[in-house]
Design a protein that fits this description.
Elements lengths: L10 E4 L8 E8 L4 E4 L4 E6 L10 E6 L2 E2 L3 E4 L6 E2 L1 E6 L3 E6 L13
Antiparallel strand pairs: 1-2, 1-7, 2-3, 3-6, 4-5, 7-8, 9-10
The structure holds zinc ion.
Zinc ion binds next to loops.
Length: about 110
């Protein structure tokens, strides 16, 4: 994802809309549309007629739908606040993400 600092399994906070302040885990990235699927956020109801051949029951199913990157913010594991992420190089060749609020290295950024 171009210029995207959000990784899968990151904790993010919804910054706008009716779910503002809600925190969830990133389940999936959609690089082409700059959207991410956030666990438990932006749920939409889908009506389903069911499928008797597959033994699926009909009814209303709730499903997460992807949220645009501009509507979310990464939550720092250390200071537990929504923050901006920067990059820095440690040990001369290891690039890591860090929290711009507390300057701590983000967990999960050690792997490339
Ligand atoms: Zn922090």
């Amino acid at each position: 994802m171009k210029n995207c600092k959000i990784h899968k399994n990151d904790k993010v906070m919804i910054m706008v809309g009716r779910e503002k302040g809600k925190i969830g885990k990133v389940l999936k990235l959609f690089p082409k549309t700059n959207r991410v699927l956030v666990e438990g956020a932006n749920k939409v109801k889908r009506h389903s007629k069911g499928n008797p051949y597959k033994r699926e029951a009909g009814g209303i199913k709730e499903q997460e739908s992807p949220v645009h990157l501009s509507n979310i913010s990464v939550v720092c594991d250390v200071c537990t606040k929504p923050t901006r992420i920067g990059y820095k190089v440690i040990d001369t060749d290891k690039k890591v993400r860090f929290c711009k609020k507390c300057n701590e290295i983000m967990i999960g950024s050690a792997k490339k």
